[in-house]
Automatic annotation (TrEMBL):
Gene: lolB
UniProt keywords, alphabetically: Cell outer membrane, Chaperone, Lipoprotein, Membrane, Palmitate, Protein transport, Signal, Transport
Membrane topology, record value: Lipid-anchor
Signal peptide per UniProt: 1-26
The keyword Flavoprotein is assigned to this record: no
Organism expressing this protein natively: Seongchinamella sediminis
GO annotation, biological process: protein transport
UniProt cross-references to Gene3D superfamilies, sorted A to Z: Lipoprotein localisation LolA/LolB/LppX (2.50.20.10)
Entry superkingdom: Bacteria
Keyword flag Membrane: yes
Primary location class: membrane
Cellular component, GO, one term: cell outer membrane
Protein name: Outer-membrane lipoprotein LolB
Record's subcellular location: Cell outer membrane
Length: 203
């Protein structure tokens, strides 16, 4: 799994290893329109998003095209780079992770401590699929939340020591979803561009 984009792979592995099923805390300063927006997206459990992700740390910079498919607790991700570099797929059913890159295959139990020990990068943990939708990760306190002038969409979220800056939203199938965001802490910065959202359904 060391042939291409190891930092990006671990970014997404750790995002998938997050807690689920706990209610998200309500931001103290949130307005009614934010609460309605957040509740709508919390119910959105089936979706697909595609675009690009670029990760920069103190040691390296990497980028890839990204396809993320979420079906309930199950996630399927595909990372692909330029010039024919082997694509990487990451699958999780909520308890196991499977990673395929070319002829390489790895599998982890999400409760295995070695999953966290394997990486040496300062990366977002356990929350990215929630942040992608523009809502806080459930079960973790929100340090800060800044809303737009209408009191509906987040401009900046601080959670788990990370800062998520939402730079652009667009409407897809009746949902207002991020199309450009940045996730950062210290010298680590992930820029995510999501051109398309679709395949929506809710329980």
């Amino acid at each position: 799994m060391s042939t291409v984009q190891p930092a990006l792979i671990w970014l997404l592995l750790l995002a998938l290893a997050g807690c689920a099923g706990m209610p998200a805390p309500a931001p103290e300063s949130g307005k009614a329109s934010w609460h309605a927006h957040r509740e709508q997206l919390q119910q959105l459990s089936h979706w697909t998003a595609s675009g690009k992700i670029a990760l920069r740390t103190a040691e390296q910079a990497e980028s890839a095209s990204l396809l993320w498919q979420q079906i309930g607790e199950a996630s399927h991700l595909r990372l692909s780079g330029p010039m024919g570099i082997s694509a990487t797929t990451i699958d999780s059913d909520g308890s196991l992770l499977e990673v395929r890159q070319g002829d390489d295959y790895s599998r982890w139990d999400l409760d295995d401590p070695a999953l966290g020990d394997e990486h040496s990068w300062d990366l977002p943990v356990r929350s990215l699929h929630h942040w992608l939708k523009g809502v806080p990760a459930p079960g973790s306190p929100v340090q800060s939340l800044l809303l737009d002038a209408a009191g509906q969409l987040p401009e900046q979220l601080q959670q788990l020591g990370w800062t998520i800056d939402y730079q652009q939203f667009a409407s897809f199938g009746g949902y207002l979803l991020p199309t450009r965001l940045q996730v950062s802490r210290g010298e680590t910065r992930a820029r995510i561009l999501l051109r398309e959202w679709g395949d929506f359904s809710a329980p």
